[in-house]
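User:
Care to share a sequence and structure tokens?

Assistant:
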Amino acid sequence: MEVQGRIKLIDETKTYGSNGFRKREVVVTTEEQYPQHILVEFVQDKCELLNSFQVGQPVKIGINLRGREWVNPQGETRYFNSIQGWRIESLQPEQSSGGMPPVPPSDAFEPANDFNEEEHDDLPF
């Protein structure tokens, strides 16, 4: 599954428990008639994926929905959901031209003066 929108908030990486569980949260605001503010968690080694992103940047995030069951001390069963991110990519158009060198202006080329229209070539056009 995926969610798209603009980054509203990027939280710092937080560490929990004695085993060093790490979690970092990002809030993405969808761009639709009724915008939604979606909290996505990145855990463990995925926390670093957010390092190169900034607030306001349009992104697409690959997500997994997670759900768990918990029984409280009174014996009541509760259910919790979370949205876990595993990939994030920018939706901004690339500033570079994809590795292509710039095209020189047309006046940088000299016109062909030795062209003979009566010469036939084997090109089909």
